[in-house]
Amino acid sequence: MAQNQYLLTNLLSENDEQVITSIMQHIQKDDRRPSIQQIAKENYISTTYIVKMCKRLGFDGYSELYYSLSRQLEHPETGNDGTVSSALKNLIDNYDPQQIDRFCQMLYRSRKQKMFTSGEGFSDLIVSYMVQRLSICGFLAYNHVHFFDFMLFQEDIGNDTAEQEPSIMFVVSQSGEAEPVVNDVRHARQNGYKIVLFTKRDDSTLARLSDITFVLDSAKQTLVGGIPNLFFGHVILAFEELIALYFYKRSSGELSESPLG
Q: Each residue of 152-184: pLDDT tens digit?
């Protein structure tokens, strides 16, 4: 995971990020531990602001925040050069660095837009988890809202859907053939949305409709009742790793506003 991704989320203010980044720069330079007064002066804020920020993030104070960041930098799960953790490579059967980079770029480009998810059965539980994770990180993510119904509602209330910038639909399907999900994806594509699919099959209808397909626990035959079925747990783990990598790339300035490709 990224070395400071749990702090650098969309929920932090610009001042919060500057403070954390400033502390980390001192740690990386092997400087003596800067005082809270020094960090406040460097960022043109008060020490009271830093104390309140620490409390908001769940730390007792500045010292606990500093040592937490120090431990993360000493034992990073993702390399300081942004290399992907071995866990992600092991989870995704069709792992491709360019595809991972494209995912991060898509997420950055869509960070202020409405995102949707789609899944049926057990997959619906997984996309619900994705919505919770994305929401905690400050994204606008929705589940249990069929895309076609959303677009119809927008038209009914007079909103011009053509003016709404499309973003991403995250999809989970073992077989890649669930009809309600396929319908959601087709409507989303018609409106310019990018599709990110997590599946067992790369030869399915959904795989052909998706912009990015992550294959996990690859199999031509999919039996939902098979036990143990590790697919759904692996999707959650892979998604967590992808979000962590996104925040690393964001904090290191690797992402841009270039159009979704």
A: 655 655 655 555 567 899 999 999 999 999 999
